Amino acid sequence: MQYIYKTQGTCSTTIEIEVEDGILKEAMYWNGCNGSLHGISKLVKGMPVAEVIAKLEGIRCGRRSTSCPDQLCKALHEMGY
Question: Which residue positions in the chain have pLDDT lower than 50?
Answer without folding.
Answer: none
